[in-house]
Automatic annotation (TrEMBL):
<dbReference type="Pfam" id="PF13450">
    <property type="entry name" value="NAD_binding_8"/>
</dbReference>
<dbReference type="Pfam" id="PF01593">
    <property type="entry name" value="Amino_oxidase"/>
</dbReference>
<dbReference type="InterPro" id="IPR002937">
    <property type="entry name" value="Amino_oxidase"/>
</dbReference>
<protein>
    <recommendedName>
        <fullName>Amine oxidase domain-containing protein</fullName>
    </recommendedName>
</protein>
<dbReference type="GO" id="GO:0016491">
    <property type="term" value="F:oxidoreductase activity"/>
</dbReference>
<dbReference type="InterPro" id="IPR036188">
    <property type="entry name" value="FAD/NAD-bd_sf"/>
</dbReference>
<feature type="domain" description="Amine oxidase">
    <location>
        <begin position="150"/>
        <end position="401"/>
    </location>
</feature>
Amino acid sequence: MSVKLDLHLIQSVYSNHSTSLQQPPKGVLRLRKSKYSAAMKRVVAKVAVVGCGISGSICASSLARNGVSVTVFDSGRGPGGRMSQRREVIEDGKELLFDHGAPYFVVRNSEVMGLVQEWEARALVTEWKEDFGSFDCGTKKFVDIEKDGVSKKYVGLPGMNSMCKAVCRENGVETKFGTTVGKLDWLEDKKSWHLTDLDGQVLGQFDGVVASDKNVVSSRFTSTTGRTPPLDMTLAPELALKLQEVSAAPCFVLMLAFAESLSSIPVKGFSFKNSEVLSRAFCDSSKPGRSATCECWVLHSTAEYARRVIAQYGLQKPSTFLLSKVAEELLKEFQSTDLNIPHPFFMKAHRWGSAFPVTAIAKEDKCLWDGSKRLAVCGDFCVSPDVEGAVLSGMTAAKKLLDIFSCL
């Protein structure tokens, strides 16, 4: 049976592009262009991508480069998700920037490496060439020092969200930040999706949907908003079974700024051993392209510590009092290391309520897919709990939609 889409004629998506945007990334995106460009030059499908983290951004970029009209919805103030960069302006007007989510990423997959090489050529990412290690809170000593060059660690320029920002500016991608999708309804008679926001305002009608934010189907959406999740999973029962398996660990982060270098710390990133409070610490200001006017660190709590706090105070938006309490506790643990940590001139805590997935629900499939409703679910929780997993999942979700659109 043929499927009728709400399609209209457009000019090629590549017209009026800058040279850098005309060239698709190496690997999978380059292959897609040759496979799908003929069909996509004639017509364009409309796709909604919910969530503008790295997975949703990559999916949106791949679709747009092949002629699909993409609208990205995100409840945040800008792109990035857990690759966001936090901007803080203190009393003297000084601006502080923190990568308060993913501190860096590594690459093992050849398709992702092709994309990273394109980002490097466009000065969107570079290697973070510093020593890393572990600190044993029991012995108060650094152990397992990993010298630069053992494994390549990549960071965004000038922030971890640089890649998400760049792809969101590409032709064919429209972004709507500060917009929370409240409901996704499948219109069987029109074979399309109808989206509304939390106030019931219509966001548009789309031929396909990509959910890169697991909260659209998570009970956490109810915990934080008091509403049912936007996507009724009875529409896709097979996907619903998989999504029930999604589990993520929470995390608090503490952003710190010091007037002087923490010279007692011999590395720029390290994990904690034998600490019930802290899991990792990174010197953000040591990354390439960052300001050197002060030394900025980002501390990550353990999942166990975050769960204890959430169990006591709930999943609602944390109060200023709670975040201040968490900040004091994380700083106290940092200073208990006997590393001569002075009091920072700036500190602020942030909560990631479902920061790190602990399961991969799609595995080799890389995303969840319902072809009958042109619905894809992608993210690091589908492949692996890291940036590379999120990228692979977003690429695969775009492939699924492009395959079905090219056959119509």
